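sorry for the late reply, my laptop died twice this morning and i had to redo everyting from scratch. anyway the thing you sent over, i finally got around to it. pasting the sequence first so we're on the same page, its 782 residues, then the predicted structure underneath. double check i copied it right bc i was rushing
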Amino acid sequence: MRGLLNPKIFDLRASLVAHMYAHRLRAHAVQEALAGGGIAVGVALLVGVVASSATLTRAGDELIRGLQGNARLALSARSPEGFPEATAEQAGSLPGVKVAVYVLRANVSIRGAQHRSPVQLIGITSNLRELGGVAVREIESEAEIRSLRGGIGLPQSVAESTGSSVGETVTVLARGQAQPARVHVVIRGGRAAPLTASPVAVALLPTAQRLTGLAGRVTEVLIEPDAGAEGKVRQELDHLAAGRLEVSGAEHELQLLAQATGPSHQSTTLFAAVGAAIGFLLAVTAVLLTIPERRRFIGELRLDGYDWRQVLVILGFQLIVLGLIASAVGVVVGEILASTLFHQSTAGLNVAFPLGSHEIVDVRLVVAALVAGVLASLLAAIPLGLDLGVHRRGGRVRQGIDVEVIPARVVGVLAAVGVALVIGAGVVLIVVPSLTIVGTLVIGGAVPCLVPVMLMGAIRGIEWISGRARSSALIVAAEELRGASLRATVVAVVVGLAVYSTTAMTGGQRNLFTGFELAAAQYFGTADIWVAPPDDIVDVNPFPVGRTLTQIAALPGVASVRAYEAGLDDIGNARIAVIGRPVSDPTLIPASQVLSGDLAKANRLLRAGGWAAISAGFANTRHLKIGDSFPLPTPSGSVPFRIAAITTNLAWPPGAITINAVDFRHFWHTTEASALEVTLRGGVSVSEGKRQLAGVLAQRPGLTARSSAERIARNKASVSQQLESLTVISTLLLLAAAVAVALTLSAAIWQRRLGLASLKVHGYDHRQLWRALLLECAVVLT
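ok and here's the structure:
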C-alpha cells in the first residue's frame, strides 16, 4: 500500500482515489463486506416497512384518480341504493357543467369456473372518456368502452382468480340474487396498473343497473365544470341535493381513503421508525468497526505527505461509495420484502374503496434510503473526522482504543435521559391514552439511553466476580468490554430495540385478538345464525328482503328472525359505519366495547330511538360527550341524535355509529336489510337450523347462512390477515437484530485477530479465548 502513495501526487486524480479504494477492497474484503452488509440490512428493513405501508394508499389513490380524471365535483348518495337517475340528469344539465358522468358502485361477487371473488362493480356512462382518466385509457387500450355493452370488463387479477376469460359467462352475486354476465374485456395492463390488479369489475351503467337490480339508480355523479364555473356549479348542486345527497370535491374520496387507512399507517409507521432506528444503528455499528484500521490508513497517508484536505477527499470517497453500493443492495432487498413478506391485505376496506394492490416504487423512498445509508457510513466515521481536526491543528492523534470507550459522564447523562423518557411517556399515556403510538416511540427512544448504564453495571459485576473467581475468561472479557464499550453498547442497543419492538407488537396483537374474540362473540352472539351476502365481512351491503323474512320465520325450527341494518356514511373526512341493530336484540352494543356510559341505560335509550352510540375517535374529533347531540347526515337530511354511549370503532377503522334498526329504516327510506339474524327454538341444533334455511335460500343464491361461531371465526381470520404483515415485520426485526449481532461480532472478532494472537502468545489457549468471547457475547445480548 505504501508504494501506491506517491507524495508528489497532490492533485488527487479521480483514478488515483478509485485505485486506492480498489486496493483497500482487495486487502480488507471481509471487513468491507461486513460493513456493507450491515448497511444493506438496515436499508432493506427501512425500505421494506415503509414501502409496504405506502403501497396500500398510493395504489388506491392512483385507481381513484384514474377513474375520476378531470372531475372537480361529485354528487354522491348516502345510501348504497343510490338516488334516481333523473336527479343525476338534472345535475348534468346545470349551467356551467362541461362533463357529467353517472356512476353506479356496488359490492358484488364474481363467480367463475374456478373460484368466487368479491369485487366492486363500477357502472359508468360511455362518456367517462371525456374526463380523461388514465384508467379509462387503459380500458380503451384493450377495447372501446362501448364494447362493454351488455357485458363486463374484468382486471387481469380478477379474471385469473375466478378462472374467467373473454367470451365466457360468469355469475354476478349482487344484493341477494345471481345474474349471468358475459366477460367482454380482460384488462391486462397498460398505463394504469392499479386497475389491472384491483378487485373491481367495469360495466356500462345500464348493465350494472340490471346486474344489481337497481334500475334507474346511480350512486354518484362526477362533474367537470367549465373553466371558472366551479363555485357556481357547486352552489347549484347544493340546492339540488337539499341535504339529502353529499356534494363534495372529487378529491374527497382520496381524503376518505387516507383517513380509513390511518390506523394501519400508524402501526406500520411505528415499526418503520423502530426499523429505521435499528437499521441506522446497525449500519453505524458495521462501519464503526472499520475505524481502527482506517485510522492506521490515515496515519500512513499523513506520513506520505498528504494534507488533511486530501485525506478527507480520499476517506469521504470510500465511505460514500461503500454507503451507496450497500444501500442499493438494501433497496432491492427491501422492495422484494415489501412485495412478498410485507404485503398488506386490503380485504377489510374493499367494501368501501376500490383499492389497488400493485407494488409502487417510490423514487423519493429510494433516494431517502440511499441518503440514509451514506449518512450512516459518514456518521460512523466521526472519530476519523476528529483525528483530521487534530491533524489540521498540528497535533498528534493518540493511537489507543479510547475512541471506543464511552465516558462515565456520558453514561450518567444518558441514563438520566432514559429514566425521564420512561416516566414522561408513562404519565402521558395515563393522561391521554390515545397517544399510544407516541408513547411507544418515546419508550423505544429510552432503550438506547438505558443500555449503556446497564452494560457498565454488567462489566463491573464481571470485574468483581473475576477478582474472586480468578477466571482468565472473565478477566479477558471484562477488559475487552471495557476497552470497546461503544461497540458493545451499540450492539446491545440494536438487540434491545429489536426485542422491545417485537415484544410490543406481539403483546399488542395478543391483546387485540383477545379483545376481538370477546367483542365478536358478543356482537354475533345475538343470533344463532346470520344470513347475509357470502363475501360481506362487515355486513354493509343491503339486499331486498321480500318474502325471505316471512319464509324464514315460518320454519319450524326458527323462534324469531330480525332484520339487521348497516351502511357506510361519509361524515366529514371519514367513511363511518352506521349500524342499525334490531330493537329486540339482547344487546345493541357489545358490552366489552363500551368505553364510556352505562350499558343497560345505553341499550334502553337506543331502543327508544333518537339516541346513538358513537366510537371514541368520532367523539374526540368533534369534542362530543355522553348526552350531547350531533347531526347525522342521512338520505332524509341531517338528523339530530343524542349520545347514549361511547364505544370502540367496532372493528371498522374509520369509526362506527350504532342506532336502532327502526330509526335506520325510517331515515334511510329502506325496506332492505344488510343481514338477517335468526334465533332457533330450544332444542334445535345449528346444523338442523341451517338445513331448514337451505330450502328458503335456494331461491336467494346471493345469500349464505352461517352460524355465529362461523361468523366469529371468519371475521377473526380477516383481522388476522390484515395484521399478517405486522407480524412478519416484527419477526423480521428480530431476525435483523440477529443478523446485526452476527455481522458486528464477526467483524469485531476479525478485527481483533492480532489481539487474540497476542493473548495466545502470552499463554492463553483456544478454550480460554473461546470462553471469553462467548462470555462477551452473552453479556451484550443479555
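Residues 633 and 769 are 75 Å apart (CA to CA).
thats about all i looked at so far, will dig more tmrw
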